[in-house]
Amino acid sequence: MKKLLTLSALLLLITANSQETPYELHDAPTFSVDGDFDGNGSVETLSQFITDSLGNRIAHLQEIENDTWDDYVNGFAAKGYRTGIAIAGEENNTLSFNQSQGVYLLINLGNLNKTKGDEIAIIPDVVDQSRHSYCHVYSLCKGKWQEVFVFSVHEDAFDTFDGIPYKSLPGILEQKKGKWHYHDYLEMEYDNPKDVGNMMPLKVLDCTQAP
User: Fold this and answer.
1) 32, 72, 6, 25: which is closest to 165 by C-alpha?
2) 8-56: per-residue pLDDT in tens?
3) What Rg do the C-alpha atoms of the chain give, in angstroms?
4) DSSP letters of 129-191?
5) Separation CA 49–CA 66 (nearest Å)
6) Whole-angstrom Cα distance, residue 104 to residue 11?
7) Which of 122, 152, 149, 151 is nearest to 207 (CA)?
8) Which candidate, 126, 134, 136, places its Cα nearest to that of 83?
9) Which helix (DSSP H) or strand (DSSP E) does residue 63 occupy?
10) pTM given for the model
11) Which of 106, 91, 88 has its CA nearest to residue 167?
């Protein structure tokens, strides 16, 4: 009886392995921008990469072949993929975005506040069922990345995304007369009624003011 059960279990295992969901490999997206992020007068390179669930950098992503979007989201979540962003040589200070496959946008905004160093804007490409994303603005505060501003973005802005991160998003985040302006999809605060619906100057907190 025991031998019969063992044989049955072996057959089930072989059948299960033969019916595994087929995967194909794709290059994990990478991107980088330069800037003086720590304010010391020298140029650093800020790099975006993909990690597995253990935080190890990977070169390829496994994607289910001929899947539905639900299958893709569930499969991606099960893999534990994350997007990491760090200055070269300073991987111990990495920004990490769960369940994301790179970025829609990674920009050096220049120095927007009284804290030395350039600020960065990031919109991670999060794999989920939502059509809503966030643009995060960070400063390097005493050697650690600190979020100093955030606003919401509707993902119809990315319907033509070709895998190369945007350098600006007209009507959402763009420069006007040398100054960065933004528009929040969900919440915008206006001091003047005539400004309603318009983009507003991007003003961010200093490190000493950030929560």
Assistant:
1) 32
2) 444 444 444 444 556 778 889 999 999 999 999 999 999 999 999 998 9
3) 22
4) S-SEEEEEEEEEETTEEEEEEEEEEEGGGGTT--SSPBS-BTTTEEEETTEEEE--SS----S
5) 26
6) 46
7) 149
8) 126
9) strand 60-64
10) 0.84
11) 106
